[in-house]
Structure formats: structure tokens, C-alpha cells
Model the fold of this input.
Amino acid sequence: SRSTPNFWQQNDWSRVHNDYHMQFPEHQYFIKNDFMGQNSIYLPVYYSNVCLKFIPVLDIVIHRLIELPPKNSRNWIIDILRVYSGMFAYHDTPITYLHDTLFYYDTTLSTERDHEKRVLVRAVLEPQPTKPMEFLSDQFINYLKSEDSICKWEPSPGYYPDLVLKMNDFIKKTSFKEFSHVDWRFNEFGNPVSFMLHLLSMELMCIPVPQAALNKSPLEVLTEHRLNIGSKLVEIVLCNKAMLPELSNTVALILSALPVSFSQTIYRKIAEVLADTSNFNEVDVDVGTSNVAGVYWNNKAQNVLILVHSFFQHCKSDKIGNLPQFISDNVGLFTMEAQVVYILKLVAPFLCHIFRNPTRNPTLCALYQAMFNLLSEQSVANPDLFVDFMYYIKYIYAGGELKPMIEKHLPLMPSDIASKLKFLVQGTETPAV
Done:
């Protein structure tokens, strides 16, 4: 028998490995020093070989070649991958390596190296014993197998819904017969859902960018292309109200595994909801799911809130870190009481993330400014809601950090509101830790 990546399935693996080292002997060499005698013995290698040691070097070489200008390295990458692609069968984390490569070099690979990207994906996935190519879409597999240096593939209208529903079915499944050949004890992923999430996100990152217009740079076209894909994923959620909670979770997971450019559509959707005042209506009774008397949001605003909360729950700091800047840039949209309540409900569960951000002061100022602008009016239906929120931010996060701003606005408040807010400038004199 011969060596195999699934060594745990061989009864005679030790003999096969020892036979290999008898035929190709290797040793661990070390530098002698004064503490070692002249007759030191070099230790033989039993648990590795020179090919396995070369895999991390191959990883780095591919990354360095991607960083070089395409005209100098295009043929090198393709030739190296065609010769050494079989070594990825022995890679400890091949799919994670491919995902991270596509993620980190997203701009370079998408705008300048479409052909090399296809060759890289096939070189890594085809040798894998887990057979990941079987879980990719037919359209994407045909795109990967194209030998043309420029392959113009545009997904069909049903492509994105099929991907999302496929991922959603994976999340809900309890039995995975298609993975019966996979031993999860020795796999880089702990479960099929994580395995499928990485494959799906890689597939979305590999969708080719349309040809750049004459008046646009490749980077501008890439940004629009990524926003377009993100918008299609979001619309799948918002247009399917019967499956809204589970699809929100699925799309949020997908967007969290993609570069930031895909998820910018989330912030655009929030701004779109806030800018349309028809999404917010004033009523006199406690209604809807807002749980705030006098405030009502229509279904679109509520659905976007559910999706955004799912996304923020799954995403990392590189994506949620855009939230403070978004609040500061769009403070002019918070004019109605329902709009301010909406942004507070959106932000409140993730204040701990905001306060890890160095730009927290402008964000707090923007939130406080929106509430002060609202409280200065006499028609606020829920003044205690905003007063309580200000005190919460002060005692949990800000301390006396915003005292100058509060002292500036306090005289402009109605007397009943000012009497409730007076303790914001008393007590804690230093920022909370």
C-alpha cells in the first residue's frame, strides 16, 4: 500500500512510513556546541518528511507571487500550482488557507488575477479527500473548469437564492449522509456547517467582476460589484417573510465570512430605512414589536432590524467597527422620535463593541446630539426613555467624558427634562473604565 492523507484508516501506516524513510532517509540536523560531544547522533525523522515540511513554504511562495506584478508572476503561479497541487491533499487546513488567501488578497485577485484565482481554487480543492468540489454549484464548477484566461460568467437569477437556501438547509439538518466519508476528529472543521460556510463564501468571492467602464477604475467596479452581491443576499431575506428569522441568521453568517466590501450593503440598507420617513409613523398606543408607547415602525424597518442584529451578532470587529462612523455620518437622519428609538434599538445590544473602538467619543456625541435635539421639542411621547438611556451610557461606559457637551445643552432643555438630566453632570468626573 502507499501513503495517504487519511493515515488513520491504514492498519499498516507505520510500516509504510518507515519503508518510505528507509528509501528516502532524512535526519534532523542541529548545530553542535560546547555541550555536545564529538560523536553526537542525528535523530531520524519518523513523524514527518521533506514534502510535508515544504507545504508551509509553498503557502508563503504563493502569497509572495500574488503580491508581485501580474506580468512578472502570472506564469509562475500557474506552473507551480499545476506541479505541486497534489501536496495540498496533505495540508493541515487547506480550505481555511484558500479562504484566507481569497479574503486577504480579494482586491488583487478579483481585479488582476481572475485566471490564477481559478487555478488556485482547483489546485487546492480537487486533491482533498473530503471532496469539497461536490458541494459547489454547477455554475461555479463550469466556471472553474474553463481554460480561457478571461472567462465571462454571470450567475443566473436563481443562483443566489439557491446558495442561501442550500446553506440554510445545512444549518437546519441533523443528519449528514453526504459526509459519511469524513472523519471530523481529523478534519480542519468541527462540523459540516462550518465546512459549507467556507466553501460558499469562497464561491461568492470568486464570482468574476464585470468589465470596467471607461470612466471607472477597476477598484470602483469591484466595490459596486460586491455591493450588488450583498444587496441580492439581503433582498432574499427581506422578500421571504415566512422564513425571515432563519434566513436572517443564514445571510448574516455568509456576510460575516466575506470581506467588508460585501457587508457595506447592510449600512446602506439602514440608511435607506432611516431616510424614508414612511417607515416610521406616530400613534398614541403601544403597538407592534417596538414595545415603546407612541412609536410604530412598519414591517420593513422591523425586518431590517432583525437582519442587522443577526449580522452584528456573527461578524467580527472589522465589520462592526464601521458602526460608529455610520452613526456620526448619518446623525442628520435622526429627526423623528421613532427614528431615534430605532437607531438606539439597533445600537444598544452592541454598545460594548462600540466602546472598544477608539472613535467612541464622536459616536457618543452623535447619539447624545440626536437625543438632545429630540428632547428640546415639547412633543416627545417618551422622554423618560431617552433620559434613562443617557444615564445608562454615563454610568456603564462614558463616566464624565461628555460632561462639557451636556452642560452646553442642558440650559436649552425644557425645565421638566432639565431637572431629570441634571445628574448627568454630577457624580462621576472621570471616564468610566
User: Anything to note?
Assistant: Confidence is low (pLDDT under 50) at residues 283-294. The first strand starts at residue 27 and ends at 28. The chain has 21 helices and four strands. Residues 218-238 form the longest helix (21 residues).
